[in-house]
Automatic annotation (TrEMBL), chains A, B:
UniProt name for this protein: D-serine deaminase, pyridoxal phosphate-dependent
GO MF entries: D-serine ammonia-lyase activity
UniProt KW Lyase keyword: yes
Family the UniProt entry places it in: Belongs to the DSD1 family.
Domain D-serine dehydratase-like: 247-354
Keyword Chloroplast: no
Top-level taxon of the source organism: Bacteria
Gene Ontology biological process terms from the UniProt entry: D-serine catabolic process
Organism per entry: Alloyangia pacifica
Segments passing through the bilayer: none
Keywords, sorted A to Z: Lyase
SMART domains referenced in this protein's UniProt entry, alphabetically: D-ser_dehydrat
PANTHER family noted in UniProt: D-SERINE DEHYDRATASE, ZGC:162816-RELATED
Length: 369, 369
C-alpha cells in the first residue's frame, strides 16, 4: 500500500486507467505484430480517446462513424470502419474522404458493393472464418461477384475477418487455432479473388485472443485488436493476460453494510460497471467484477456479487473460506471489469494514473454514433 | 403503416421516444397516486432529461448528485437523492442546499447519520422491506439510535423503502403483496420512531411494480417509481404493462444477412441496446429485445438473439414457426428494450416522436455522477 496514489479527491464512481499497465499491453502486442511481420491496426472501439489514439499512432480501426470523425479531426488519416456498411451511412463516409481521410469500409453483399461503388468508397470484403456474425465464406461464389463490382470502380482493397468465437475458447493453443482459422480463411479468399484476376492488397485479421496467440501470419498484411490495451477479467479468464495486466478499474466508495448477509454496499452499480456478465460462462464467475483495495491489490475472493443501477453488492465468492475484511463506511475500493469495452462505455472520462507517479490527468472519452 | 413517421433521416442506432405512450404512462400513475392519497415523487434515474422532468413537475427522486445538480439548475427545488450517502459526497449536497435546493439524502447507519448531522443535511432512514439491498429492519434497535442522531440536529425527515425484489414477481396479486410489505415495513418503522418520541413526517415507498399494484397506502405519504414513464419488456413480462405501452425503442438499420442461419444483421449491438438481459429469467426470453417495423408494430417472434458491440443479430425466437420476413439491406427496424434504464443510458439523446404528429424533437439526455 506504500506506493498507493491518493485518490480521495476523486468523486465516485469513476474510471481509473493505469498508464504503466496500458503501455506494457500496447508494447506487448506491437512487438508481437513486428515479430509476425504484419502492420498493427489497433481498434479504438474500447478506448474512444484521442489521447490513447495519439499513443498508438499509425493506422486505426473504428466501430462507429463518430469515432472516424473524432479521430480524423485529431489527425489520424488511415481509418478502417469495421462494421458492415449501411448505404445510408455512405454520405458521412464520403464527407470524411472529401476532407482527405483515407476511410475504408467493409461489406459482404453485392447490394453493399454497388452502393459503395456508386459512392466511390473503397472497401474490404468481410470473410466469415468462424460463424460468429457477418461475412462470406472464402469459397462463396458471391465473393468474386462482390470483388468484381468493387474492382470495376477501382475500390477493392482486400479482405477482412474477425474470429469473435475465440473469446469463448480458453488457452493459447485454442487461440492459436482460431488465429490459423482467420489466416487460412482470409488467405483462401484473397487467392480466390486473385485467381479471378482481381487485386487483394490487404489481408486483415484479428481479435485480442488470436492476435496474441498467432504463430505464423503468412499471407496476412495486417492485424487488428482492441481490448488488449486495457485487458479485462474475460481476457484473464481465457488466459490471454494475467489479472495484473488489467489497466482499467472502477473506483468506488463503501456506502453501507448488511452485516448479517456479509454484504458491503458500494456506489458502483451496473451504471458504473455495465451489465456485462462475461465471466458468468467461464470457469471462475467474477460476478460484476473483482474487488481490489484502493492501491489496486486484489482482495482474495471478494467480488461484486450483485448490482442495481447505482448500488453494488460486494461479498465473498460463493464457497469462499476467506474472511470478509473490515471495510468501513467511506472506504475506497477498485473494481476490475468483466469486459473493458462495456465498462468504459459507461464513463465520460478516464482518471489517468501516470506511469511515473506525478499528477493525475483526466482524459475525456466520447460515445455515440 | 399508414401513420408511420418518416425516420429515414435519423442516423442509426438512435433512441426513439413515443410521446403519446409516455404521456399515457405518466398520467396513469399520477391518477393512481391521487386515488391512493399520496404524493407522487417520480424517479428521474431513467429519464435523465430536463424536458421530461418539466412534464412531471413537483418533487422528484434522483440516483446521482449529477442528476440533483442538473434538475436543480432546471428549476426543481424538492429533490430526494435515494442512494445511501457516502460522507465524501456531503459537500456537494451542502453546496446545492446552500443554493436553495431542498435536497434530502438517505442512510441506514449511525456513522452516516453523524456525518449528515455535522453537515446539516436532512435525511430519511432507509428501511429494508424485502432483503433486496440496504436498509434497517423496522424493528432494528439501530433505527431509533439513527433517528435520535438525526433528530438531535433537527434533520430527521422520515423513512423510505424500495421493494426491488418485486421485479422478480409476476402479476398484480404478487406486486400488491410487495406493496403491502413496503407499506407495513415503513409504517412500523415510523411507529417505532414516533414511539421513541421522534418525528417521522415522511413515509416514502415505491417501485414501478408496487406503485401500480398498491391498493391501500394508509400511513404512507409518498410514492416513488422511475421506469414507469417508459416501461420495457421486463415490466411487460411481469404484467405491469402491455408491450404496447413501451414508449422507448432503438431505431436500427439492416446491414447484412446470413441467410443460411436465418440471421439479419443490424447496427444496434449491445452498445445501443445495453448488455441487460433482464428477460432471460422470465417465462418469455426476449433476447436483447423484441423487433418492430419502423412504424412500431411488433414483428411476430422476431428478437435480437445476439449482440456484439455494434452488431445485433436478429432472428426468429427458438421454436418459432413464423416466417422470417424479407428485410433487405437498409431496412429500418425498432427494438423494444429489456430494461429501459440500461438502454437509455447508452444514448445521449432522445428522438421524440410527438404525440400529435408534427416535427420531431431532439431531447438531450445526460449521464455521469
Amino acid at each position: 500500500m506504500s506506493h498507493a496514489p491518493d485518490l480521495t479527491d476523486i468523486g465516485t464512481p469513476a474510471l481509473l486507467l493505469d498508464e504503466a499497465r496500458m503501455s506494457r499491453n500496447i508494447d506487448r502486442l506491437a512487438a508481437q505484430a513486428d515479430a509476425l511481420g504484419v502492420t498493427l491496426r489497433p481498434h479504438l472501439k474500447t478506448a474512444k480517446s484521442t489521447e490513447i489514439a495519439r499513443r498508438l499512432g499509425g493506422p486505426i480501426t473504428v466501430s462507429t462513424l463518430a469515432e472516424a470523425e473524432v479521430f480524423h479531426a485529431a489527425g489520424h488519416g488511415d481509418i478502417l470502419y469495421a462494421v458492415g456498411i449501411a448505404p445510408q451511412k455512405l454520405p458521412r463516409v464520403q464527407a470524411l474522404r472529401a476532407q482527405g481521410c483515407d476511410l475504408t469500409v467493409i461489406l459482404d453483399s453485392a447490394a453493399q458493393a454497388e452502393a459503395a461503388a456508386r459512392a466511390g468508397v473503397p472497401a474490404l470484403i468481410e470473410i466469415d472464418s468462424d460463424g460468429h456474425r457477418g461475412g462470406l465464406a472464402p469459397d462463396a461464389p458471391a465473393l468474386v461477384e462482390v470483388g468484381r463490382i468493387l474492382h470495376g470502380a477501382g475500390l477493392l482493397r482486400g479482405v477482412i475477418t474477425h474470429a469473435g468465437e475465440s473469446y469463448g475458447a480458453r488457452g493459447r493453443e485454442a487461440h492459436a487455432e482460431f488465429a490459423e482459422m482467420e489466416r487460412s480463411a482470409t488467405v483462401r479468399a484473397a487467392e480466390a479473388l486473385r485467381g479471378a484476376g482481381l487485386p487483394c492488397p490487404v489481408v486483415s485479421v484479428g481479435s485480442t485472443p488470436t492476435a496474441h496467440a498467432a504463430r505464423d501470419l503468412s499471407g496476412v498484411t495486417e492485424l487488428r485488436a482492441g481490448v488488449y490495451m486495457f485487458f479485462d477479467l474475460v481476457m484473464a479468464g481465457i488466459g490471454v493476460c494475467e489479472v495484473d495486466d488489467i489497466a482499467l478499474s472502477v473506483l468506488t466508495t463503501v456506502i453501507g453494510h448488511q452485516q448479517a448477509k456479509g454484504w458491503v454496499m458500494v456506489d458502483a452499480g451496473w451504471m458504473a460497471l455495465s451489465r456485462d456478465r462475461g465471466t458468468a460462462a467461464q470457469s471462475v464467475d467474477q460476478g460484476y467484477g473483482l474487488v481490489c483495495d484502493a492501491a489496486g491489490q486484489v482482495i482474495p475472493d471478494l467480488i461484486v456479487s450483485g448490482a442495481n443501477q447505482e448500488h453494488g453488492i460486494v461479498s465473498l465468492r460463493p464457497g469462499s473460506t476467506a474472511m470478509l475484511p473490515d471495510l468501513p463506511l467511506g472506504t475506497q475500493l477498485r473494481i476490475l471489469p468483466n469486459h473493458a469495452c462495456a465498462t468504459a462505455a459507461q464513463h465520460g472520462q478516464y482518471h489517468l494514473l501516470p506511469a511515473g507517479g506525478g499528477p493525475r490527468q483526466v482524459w475525456p472519452r466520447f460515445g455515440g454514433w
